[in-house]
Amino acid sequence: MAGPPVGPPSGAPADDGRASPNDAAPERETTPPGDTRERAGILFRLTGVGYEYAPGVEALAAVDLQIDRGERLAILGANGSGKSTLLKVLAGLAQPTQGTVEAFGERIDDGALKDEATAQRFRRRVGMVFQSADAQLFNPSVRDEVAFGPLHLDLPRAEIVARVEDTLAMLGLGALAERAPYNLSGGEKKKVALASVLSINPEVLMLDEPTNGLDPRTQEWLMELLEQLHGAGKTIVVATHQLDVLERMVDRAVVLGEDHRPAADGALADVLSDRDLLLSVNLIHEHAHHHGALLHSHPHAHPPGRERHAENQPEHRHRHGQGRGDGPGPDRAESREPAARDGATQ
After folding, report:
1. What average pLDDT score do residues 114-130 get?
2. CATH architecture of 21-29+42-276
3. How crowded is residue 237: how many other Cβ atoms within 10 Å of its Cβ?
4. What angle do CA 290, 295, 296 make, to 5 degrees?
5. Is 232 exposed, middle or buried (0-12, 13-18, 19+ CB in 10 A)?
6. b/e code 22-45 from CB counts within 10 Å (16+ = b)
7. Lowest mean pLDDT: which of 50-54, 62-66, 104-108, 338-342?
8. Could you tell me which of 252, 171, 235 has the C-alpha nearest to residue 9?
9. Every domain of the chain and the residues it spans
10. CB-based contacts of 117: which residues, under 8 Å, 6+ apart?
């Protein structure tokens, strides 16, 4: 298979015979010559996409989005903004109630995915890791989980075995191969869920809140793996509200507002530096507290269980005044100093 192999990140447990699913995968099916959009590098194009869970219960509205081959894209937004729904629409797991979705030069809708050849062609190329690994794992052993996808691609048995062994080795899961997934730790489950997707060797890898619930070592392991997968040519799409993990994962960000509509689309650095944007979509909020007579006000974000400053904010403000300083007055002054660059969101 063309392209560099993807080995295990340094944080992964050692396993003999490491290899990448890329090594065992067959050549991808080529797109028919008429599909000029994919030849131009456009993998996904969404036009006017909306989604309602029930009449009047809106999850997405007026989404126009293009994703090119090799991109690293984050879908950002507060809880309930529609991030996960948009990811499922891209992965073909939810069909929009308004608008159109094109993937790899083909229209993707209920009708298209009911066609076995079209569905298999799409499923070979797109893999999704859910936010909760427990929602994705249902086989009796880790080995069976990793084999599930290749078994449904009608591959030769020898190739299925090779893919499973290569993927287990790449993610350092060899010692867990015969274990039941429900008996694993949260980080181990996340690795198994990722392995179950990588064994089909998708061109596009989608992850919903990929760092949720991971300890620092496993989070670092995941960052290194995603960097290596992108280096091997994978297109990476993540949905998250955690800003502090983004710089190593993506280069571009699409921001959804609490009205379920796109609020911004641009380079990650530009998005993270736009304090007013992040405040308006509830990814950070203005937080004020006192140090004696000093009123201290700056953007904050709150991941579960801790409080940290929002990342890449250009400044925070100290307001000086008497007592609790509940408003502007002649004795109030304002000074500015650089904000801390450690951030996360809830």
Report:
1. 91
2. 3-Layer(aba) Sandwich (3.40)
3. 26
4. 85
5. middle
6. bbbbeeeeeeeeeeebbeeebbbb
7. 338-342
8. 171
9. 21-29+42-276, 286-337
10. none
- Number of C-beta neighbours around residue 57 at 10 A: 8
Residue 264, token pair as written in the block: 């911004």
Give burial (CB, 10 Å; 0-12/13-18/19+) of 260: buried
Distances (CA, A) of 279 to 74, 263, 321: 18, 12, 25
**Which residue do the tokens 């690994």 mark?**
133
Cβ neighbours of residue 247 under 8 Å, at least 6 residues apart? 268
Largest pairwise CA distance in the chain? 80
CA distances from 57 to 31, 50, 88, 326 (A): 37, 11, 17, 39
Instruction: Determine how many CB atoms are found less than 10 A away from the CB of residue 321.
Output: 18
Beta strand ranges found along the chain (DSSP E): 42-54, 57-68, 72-76, 98-103, 106-107, 126-129, 204-208, 235-240, 252-256, 262-267, 285-291, 294-301, 308-309, 316-320, 333-337
On average, the pLDDT of the chain sits at 79
